[in-house]
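seq:
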Amino acid sequence: MIDLLNTPSDVAAFRTAILSWYKVNKRSLEWRDSDNPYHVWISEIMLQQTQVTTVIPYFNKFISEYPTIKTLASTSLDEVLSLWSGLGYYTRARNIHKTAKILKKDFDCKLPNQIEALMSLPGIGFSTAGAILSLGFEQSGVILDGNVKRVLLRISGNKSPMNKYKTEKSLKEFANILLPDSKHKEYSQGLMDLGAIICRPSNPNCSKCPVDEDCAANQKEIQNEIPIKITKKAVSYTHLTLPTKR
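struct:
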């Protein structure tokens, strides 16, 4: 678990600082102009492992071609994959198509607004479900994309590898503590933008950060040491002894 001693001393002030900063510094992104949960879902899936600047034209074209879940569910997988061509990670497109079919069959072409139901759909995990809830339905939801994870790990001063299950579990708990009672959309987008603009992977601009005094990594001057991500080592079979036949 993340050491709760590293929680901001005034959580309410922390939330207010994020909201105030976001109001002035928010990025202008096409999908933010809509409160449509469908738009949030498509943009969040596209943004997985893909840069914002790459996603923008694909998102605009996708929504223009398939303006509703019903139109998406009614098209063929080949057409979806063709429109997705060049964006990569094609499992995402296949899952989108599968989910659209399920939403048409079981949810009247609407995304559900409960986290369990959302996470039962192909390609929608905890963070994407949290994004749909907070950005699409203005409900309480935790987003843990790469930007938000980095912000929270530095705020807490946590050096646990960010891609470990235990770290992920701790981050969920920590993020829940910080969630506001209202303005869920603005707060979530504020954390994401803070990570993208200020709390960058390397050389973060801490002097411009609205919550620098709450940041354990900044206070200890270890911000460039966080986050830690361990890479999986390939298994070598060179020295394995194969069993002999009997």
